[in-house]
Design brief:
single chain, 340 residues, TIM Barrel, seven-stranded parallel β-sheet, two-stranded antiparallel ribbon, 16 helices, globular, Uroporphyrinogen_deCO2ase_HemE
Length: 340
């Protein structure tokens, strides 16, 4: 590869400098993305059109000069493939017209065949891999089973996800049945992504932090562990569980190679727990609202905290859509110049 820094760091190997990319780098911060999106009927058309998804995936490589590409898609393609379709409502977010309420609802779900039901993502990966031609590695991803369950039961985004969390108390056996189906689909899907060209996969547990630790261990870490065990022999696996700082010790025992940190976590403390695993993160996305000098200083301060082990620079969550692309470039350039 022309630039394999990210891939080597994801394997835990030594690198000449810290590689850098951003979660949600392919998206609304880029004017070229907004121009393309304006021509389409909506978000789902973009996700489900492989040539366009590939184009958007590559845009930040050209515009921001980051060290990795992540396929443009959405975590909710998994429940959609299982038979629970979603809509993406402008200025509101995802909406499931039908939700999971009963054992009969779970029984109706299928364990999706990725080529049959998610072939558009796999084709986007194949197109992207050819177009990148070794410029940078390509990341595949999926949502963690708990986060997917949260949307399937709640039906939309929520501050509390009280219906989904309530199921864990009232009907834990039903929750496990649903999680088993989601996990089986996710494993097959990520394995198919690897076959289509993904060189690293990341598992996003966006709603990890709303669960108490005991529930997180039972209803999330357990299933993330199954995914890691299935994928780790194929490619390096990254786990990013936003807000679940207490889970780091459990993640240390999983066969994931990289652990993503949000901006509330202390990298040095995590390093003491997980040893030589690669850490990813963790600049506060709001730091990019600062002046050029402030962004540079915040980035350097972040980098100092990750000394002592392999690190992939990133934000502590996805880049916010009103972020100035010039601030993102300062972040990227500062990481590339760092030799601390």
């Amino acid at each position: 590869m022309k630039n394999d820094l990210y891939l080597r760091a994801a394997r835990g190997e030594a690198t000449e400098r810290t590689p850098v990319w951003l979660m949600r780098q392919a998206g609304r911060i880029l004017p070229e993305y907004r121009a393309l999106r304006a021509r389409l009927s909506g978000f789902k058309e973009l996700v489900e059109t492989p040539e366009l998804a590939a184009e958007v995936t590559i845009q930040p490589i050209d515009a921001l000069d980051v060290d990795a590409a992540i396929i443009f898609s959405d975590i909710l393609v998994v429940p959609d493939a299982m038979g629970l379709p979603y809509e993406m409502v402008e200025a509101r977010g995802p909406l499931f017209p039908t939700v999971i309420k009963s054992a009969a609802d779970v029984d109706r779900l299928r364990i999706a065949d990725p080529e049959e039901s998610l072939g558009y993502v796999l084709e986007a990966l194949r197109i992207t891999k050819r177009a990148l031609n070794g410029r940078v590695p390509l990341i595949g991803f999926a949502g963690a089973p708990w986060t997917i369950l949260a949307y399937m039961v709640e039906g939309h985004g929520s501050k509390t996800f009280s219906k989904a969390r309530g199921m864990l108390y009232k009907e834990p056996a039903l929750a496990h049945r649903l999680l088993d189906k989601i996990t089986a689909t996710t494993i097959a899907y990520l394995q198919a992504q690897v076959a289509a060209g993904a060189q690293v996969v990341q598992v996003f547990d966006s709603w990890a932090g709303i669960l108490p630790p005991a529930h997180y261990a039972e209803f999330s870490t357990r299933y993330i562990g199954q995914i890691c065990a299935a994928l780790a022999p194929l490619v390096p696996v990254t786990v990013f569980a936003k807000g679940a700082w207490w889970a780091v010790e459990d993640f240390a025992a999983l066969p994931c190679r990289t652990i993503g940190l949000d901006w509330t976590e202390n990298p040095a403390a995590v390093r003491r727990v997980v040893g030589d695993k690669t850490l990813q993160g963790n600049l506060d996305p709001c730091a990019l609202y600062g002046t050029r000098d402030q962004v540079k200083a915040a980035t350097q301060a972040m980098l100092r905290q990750f000394a002592g082990g392999p690190h992939i620079a990133n934000l502590g969550h996805g880049v916010y859509p009103d972020t100035d692309p010039d601030s993102v470039r300062v972040f990227v350039d500062t990481v590339k110049e760092w030799r601390g």
